[in-house]
């Protein structure tokens, strides 16, 4: 690519010069991808410059993600394919094109915010690429997010050649509460193990398939096997057959099947420190939203799967899951001031709350923003580890972190305990705020991105495996960068420079999409399960009078409903949807707009951002006189009510809209689709993969509201003209969720990954000791210093949750 571009520039200097001069005339030192393309379109609109189209220069600009123009130079970051980056520069006056390295590009970019005469040759740089040498890395984009499959293929052969003897130690490793599992210490060699397995399999051939372990264990011909091989004679026979195949020639699929049956996970810890983590009355409070719903549904699914697996493995063991979060003494009418709270819908899972403490040991009483909690996390990790050990009676088998804070605490705990660690990001802040790393100082007072991005880098590179809901989270699309990909290389001027932070071809990345709670969210057509007793309340909610947490009174009840339910913040873009609707008269004629979001009273919003968005909503209502066509009510946290609300809207042939500027996954999209609602959702983030455009819903671009509103108006018009059109989309939505987005699939994959990564970690020392030591130094010298500098904001008043 570069050679063709360089040759073209040399042969067409005059044309390239005219284009460069036009870019500089815009007087913008930092140009985004759309601005580069728009600028090119303007230049090539003239007849004399039209020949630039279709050239190597044009091809390069299509792939450009950003450009920096300063001092007669144009520096560009080029992404010709997913996760493939190149950097080049063009000198304007001499029209010289040169390829450069990532360091040169970042140095030049830093000068946008830190102009200086000379480059700082000794700026702190983070470069993890040397630690990747000799470790298997994927090369194909199609492999990204399928790390466990790649790892099994790559390492199965090395197991036979280099690590065969370690397999024996691995089988002796497993215990539960002091009881030995799988294999006892009487076996001292693989040859002895193979002989014992063959003898036992011959014996089991004469046992009834359904005979249980306790019925025949005392009659086994060799006394080396302990519980954990299976519950029945048939299962034990199959398990031992898999082991013989592995010892003979370890195929990836055989190894994965064998490990899926090994009793490795009975105690599980989930970290989610920030916000109000509870089971009722918390949704809509500060920093409290979809992550809480996700984790509670996750716990129910995981406990069910763990209990099933342990039973099939022949163990009468009760699985235990703890969700570890922060205890908030001043918790209002929530339960967030209680140390231990059983999780509804489980038998042995609980929320364990541990308080934040100051440096002198005092308990922090009030809620603290997720952006301000960094000084408390190290002490929290220590205290949580102690409380967790007390509840478990030992250490967990797997630690799952959530979001930046939970992932950092998980890293600290797993490193100390030697436990397998899984990270789940949900939504990384770095890609929510444009060039937030470059302009970190501007955001520091309110967001402390310096701490958060440092914590992200540490946690991402110490996790054993990372779960994402979509491919986009990892590596984006052909046009845009993924959340994790954005951590590959970036500057934080005056702090440090990342030359190689996260490699999305790392086999630790795996895609496991969650689902919606199947007991709560189900198709509107399942009449016997419907909560019809709620219909009067729902009808009042939608068609009632203004006041008491509501604005707007719908005049025409016969119109279908455009339904949206989301947090009231800048990213979720609910006011944007209102404005699209307000500016499209055709859409107003076709449908009413019904919104469940935030708090209608700006004086009762829990933080500054929601207050600003609430006031914005009222301005739109007033400006466009929307009160007879738009209904807006306070956010609600009752899942069962919300589930029936989706179905009530479906009864009236409505649709669900998710207009976010970015959505990491889109749980409400799944909830709406499984209820049978056609969905219009943002094309930025998870919904792009969830929805099959035109079959199970529609993608909309939040940056093009007019086009999005016309798409909705056209849909309603077509539904009037073709009565079966709505049903087709509704059935497509339900089918899509059933095929790919269920919690049972999620739980099975998650536990399988835990076993496989735990196995390879033990067998091959996959934990990257050198990388971890490097990052420990980064933690001690950088993160700790940044966290100590944070002065927590005084708590904002949180409204009464009664």
UniProtKB/TrEMBL annotation:
Keywords annotated in UniProt: Glycosyltransferase, Transferase
Sucrose synthase first GT-B domain: residues covered: 254-543
Native source species: Kiritimatiella glycovorans
EC number: 2.4.1.13
MF annotations from Gene Ontology: sucrose synthase activity
Record protein name field: Sucrose synthase
Record domain Glycosyl transferase family: where: 555-716
PANTHER family assigned: PTHR45839, SUCROSE SYNTHASE 1 (PTHR45839:SF7)
């Amino acid at each position: 690519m570069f050679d063709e571009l360089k040759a073209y520039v040399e042969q067409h200097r005059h044309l390239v010069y005219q284009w460069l001069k036009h870019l500089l005339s815009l007087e913008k030192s930092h140009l985004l991808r759309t601005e580069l393309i728009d600028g090119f379109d303007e230049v090539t609109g003239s007849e004399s410059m039209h020949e630039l189209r279709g050239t190597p220069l044009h091809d390069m600009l299509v792939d450009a993600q950003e450009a920096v123009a300063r001092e007669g130079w144009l520096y560009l970051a080029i992404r010709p394919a997913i996760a493939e980056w190149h950097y080049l520069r063009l000198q304007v006056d001499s029209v010289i094109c040169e390829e450069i390295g990532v360091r040169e590009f970042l140095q030049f970019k830093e000068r946008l915010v830190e102009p200086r005469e000379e480059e700082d040759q000794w700026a702190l740089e983070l470069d993890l690429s040397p630690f990747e040498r000799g470790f298997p890395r994927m090369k194909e984009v199609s492999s990204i997010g399928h790390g466990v499959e790649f790892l099994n293929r790559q390492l199965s052969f090395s197991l036979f050649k280099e690590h065969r003897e370690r397999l024996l130690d691995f089988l002796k490793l497993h215990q539960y509460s002091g009881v030995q599992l799988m294999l006892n210490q009487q076996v001292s060699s693989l040859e002895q193990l193979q002989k014992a397995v063959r003898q036992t399999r011959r014996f089991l051939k004469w046992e009834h398939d359904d005979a249980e372990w306790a019925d025949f264990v005392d009659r086994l011909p060799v006394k080396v096997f302990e519980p954990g091989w299976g519950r029945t004679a048939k299962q034990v026979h199959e398990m031992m057959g898999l082991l013989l195949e592995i010892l003979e020639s370890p195929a990836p699929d055989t190894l994965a099947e064998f490990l899926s049956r090994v009793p490795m996970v009975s105690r599980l810890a989930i970290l989610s420190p920030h916000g109000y983590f509870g089971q009722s009355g918390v949704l809509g409070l500060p920093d409290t939203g979809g992550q809480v719903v996700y984790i509670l549904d996750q716990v129910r699914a995981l406990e069910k799967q763990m209990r099933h697996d342990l039973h099939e493995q022949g163990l009468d063991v009760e699985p235990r899951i703890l969700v570890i979060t922060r205890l908030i003494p001043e918790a209002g009418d929530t339960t967030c001031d209680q140390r231990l709270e059983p999780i509804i819908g489980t038998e042995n899972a609980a929320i364990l709350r541990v308080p934040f403490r100051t440096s002198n040991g005092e308990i922090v009483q009030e809620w603290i923003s997720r952006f301000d909690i960094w000084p408390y996390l190290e002490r929290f990790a220590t205290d949580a580890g102690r409380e967790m050990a007390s509840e478990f009676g030992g250490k967990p088998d797997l630690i799952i972190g959530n979001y930046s804070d939970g992932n950092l605490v998980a890293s600290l705990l797993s490193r100390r305990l030697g436990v397998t660690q899984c990270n789940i990001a949900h939504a990384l802040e770095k890609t929510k705020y444009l060039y937030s790393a470059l302009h970190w100082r501007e955001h520091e007072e309110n967001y402390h991105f310096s701490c958060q991005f440092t914590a992200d880098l540490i946690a991402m590179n110490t996790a054993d495996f990372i779960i994402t809901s979509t491919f986009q989270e990892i590596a984006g699309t052909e046009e845009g960068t993924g959340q994790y990909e954005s951590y590959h290389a970036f500057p934080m001027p005056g702090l440090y420079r990342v030359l190689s932070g996260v490699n999305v071809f790392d086999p630790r990345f795996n895609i496991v999409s969650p689902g919606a709670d199947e007991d709560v969210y189900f198709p509107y057509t399942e009449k016997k399960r419907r909560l019809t007793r709620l219909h009067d309340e729902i009808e009042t909610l939608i068609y009632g009078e203004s006041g008491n947490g509501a604005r707007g009174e719908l005049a025409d009840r016969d119109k279908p409903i455009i339904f949206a339910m989301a947090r009231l913040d800048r990213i979720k873009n609910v006011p944007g949807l209102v404005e699209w609707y307000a500016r499209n008269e055709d859409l107003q004629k076709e449908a009413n707009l019904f919104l469940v979001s935030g708090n209608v009273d700006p004086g009762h919003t829990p933080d500054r951002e929601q207050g600003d968005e609430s006031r914005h909503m009222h301005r739109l209502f007033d400006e466009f006189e929307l009160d007879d066509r738009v209904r807006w009510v306070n956010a609600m946290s009752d899942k069962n009510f919300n589930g029936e609300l989706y179905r009530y809207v479906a009864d009236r042939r409505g649709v669900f809209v998710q207009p976010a500027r970015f959505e990491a996954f889109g749980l409400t999209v799944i909830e709406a689709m499984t209820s049978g609602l056609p969905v219009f959702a943002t094309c930025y983030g998870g919904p792009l993969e969830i929805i099959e455009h035109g079959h199970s819903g529609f993608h909309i671009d939040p940056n093009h509201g007019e086009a999005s509103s016309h798409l909705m108006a056209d849909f309603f018009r077509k539904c009037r003209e073709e009565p079966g059109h709505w049903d087709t989309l509704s059935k497509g939505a339900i089918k899509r969720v059933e095929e790919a987005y269920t919690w049972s699939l999620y739980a099975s994959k998650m536990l399988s990954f835990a076993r496989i990564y735990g196995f390879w970690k033990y067998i091959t020392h996959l934990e990257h000791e050198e990388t971890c030591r490097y990052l420990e130094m980064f933690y001690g010298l950088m993160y700790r210093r940044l966290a100590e500098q944070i002065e927590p904001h005084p708590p904002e008043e949180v409204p009464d949750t009664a």
